[in-house]
Specification:
By secondary structure, the protein is of the alpha+beta class. The protein is built from 11 helices and 20 strands. The strands form 4 sheets. Strands 10, 11, 14, 15, 16, 17, 18, 19 and 20 form a 9-stranded antiparallel sheet that branches. A hairpin with a 4-residue loop joins β10 and β11.
Length: 420
């Protein structure tokens, strides 16, 4: 089997490593591979003109005309938003694990996702959409705590902000600064310019988890859940990030399966079958009701590391079945636990400026640990993951490995897996 993985994030690098464990995989082509990766007969990193593939996306379209592949998997959401890529895949009939552009808007547009959940009567926090100008006018009159979400934007996890008595003045300063204007305006995924916001009620929950399922036009299967650590600092303190780490498995509420079933079946009735990975951010309210905080139309990252380490199924076959609308077999789960820890820049806002940095140095890697690293990513440098008989044991393995490594301008939380 010849597979093309598209994406330069930790999730894409991890997926490459997992696919290469299967002897039936003849070669894995990797678009936007990390610069530390080395080409072999079975692994082919592809960066045709520049590693900054975001600036030259048409190279990917050209690539699809010159290589033969049996399966394509896109990992970051942005590729599903790209209509030219969707059209190319359709014309060439390439088996692909990626949702349609219409479905991708359920994640990319916070407004669309909210309306969709409300239409299906899936529990979700109350919310409303406001313009930037109106939010600034009424900001101090909104009872705290409350949540604001930036519409159609990516801010390394900071597109969702909880406003409290402790940070409301600081966040108002952020809101009224140039940083509040939309950051993600690359023409190939749309030119949304006028920033709007979702103002959402704050849900004080008893636990939170990331629910994952796979689906195609035939059926769907639950593939696992992770406890993600969104906050920057130990003890779940500080601002939101893309995720500082996670662990699996996590106990889930059975009714969340019903939420997923509603979503998949409704889209099928619209003639838009969900062909890919669904990830629901779940918060369990104090009364025990699980509510959907957000819909994500791809794997969570770093959740992809622990979720895929928790299942026994043949991954290349599983992904090919998704792409080719074969009936998806039930998922078999391991008895072990899995943990992942992410290294981030000490200056978490560095992606918005020209700050120089020195990558962390965490070589060599023992055989029981998966490590993904991209030295060109000055914000999100690497993720390490492993398994153990328990969550604590898996965390022990990772922290013992990291304790004497040189972090340079990077850092990591010290309580991943231990803080339940």
């Amino acid at each position: 089997m010849k597979i093309l993985i598209v994406g330069g994030n930790a999730g894409a690098n991890f997926l490459v490593q997992k696919f290469l464990e299967y002897p039936e995989v003849e070669v894995v082509y990797h678009w936007a591979a990390s610069n530390d990766e080395v080409s072999t007969t079975r692994y082919m990193p592809l960066n045709l003109i520049t590693r900054r593939f975001y600036d030259f996306p048409d190279n990917l379209l050209l690539l699809l005309d010159v290589i033969e592949i049996d399966l394509m998997v896109t990992v970051p959401l942005m590729f599903a938003l790209w209509k030219e890529l969707q059209a190319k895949i359709a014309r060439k009939n390439i088996p692909t694990v990626m949702v349609s552009k219409l479905i991708s808007k359920l994640e990319w547009s916070k407004t669309a996702g909210k309306k969709f959940l409300q239409e299906l009567e899936i529990p979700t926090p109350k919310s409303r959409q406001v313009s930037r100008e109106d939010l600034i006018k009424e900001y101090f009159d909104i009872p705290r705590p409350f949540v604001i979400k930036y519409e159609q934007d990516w801010r390394a996890g900071q597109q969702t902000v909880i406003i409290t008595d402790d940070n409301y003045e600081e966040e108002f300063g952020q809101l009224t600064s140039p940083k509040s204007t939309v950051r993600f305006t690359r023409g190939w995924v749309g030119n949304f310019k006028d920033q709007t916001f979702i103002v959402e009620e704050f849900v004080k929950g008893i636990r939170e988890y990331s629910y994952h399922a796979i689906s195609n036009a035939v059926n769907w299967q639950y593939i696992g859940t992770a406890r993600d650590y969104k906050k920057r600092y130990d003890g779940d303190l500080g601002y939101n990030t893309v995720g500082m780490g996670c662990y699996s498995p996590v106990a889930i509420d059975e009714c969340v399966h019903e939420y997923a079933d509603k979503i998949f079946n409704y889209l099928k009735t619209l003639g838009e079958p969900y062909r890919g990975v669904l990830y629901l951010g779940i918060m369990v309210k104090q009364d025990g009701t699980p509510v959907v905080l957000e819909i994500n139309c791809r794997f969570g990252d770093p959740e992809i590391h622990t979720v895929l380490l928790s299942i026994k199924n043949n991954l290349p076959k599983l992904f090919l079945d998704i792409a080719t609308d074969k009936e998806l077999e039930p998922i078999e789960f391991h008895d072990h636990a899995a943990v992942a820890i992410r290294m981030v820049n000490k200056n978490y806002d560095c992606f918005n400026n020209e700050t120089e940095y020195t990558p962390c140095d965490i070589w060599p890697v023992p055989p029981n640990i998966y490590m993904t690293i991209n030295q060109e990513r000055k914000l999100l440098n690497s993720v390490v993951s492993t398994t153990g008989e328990s969550i604590d044991q898996a965390s022990d393995i990772l922290y013992q490995y990291l304790q004497n490594k040189e972090m340079n301008d990077f850092t990591y939380r010290k309580d991943i897996g231990y803080l339940k």
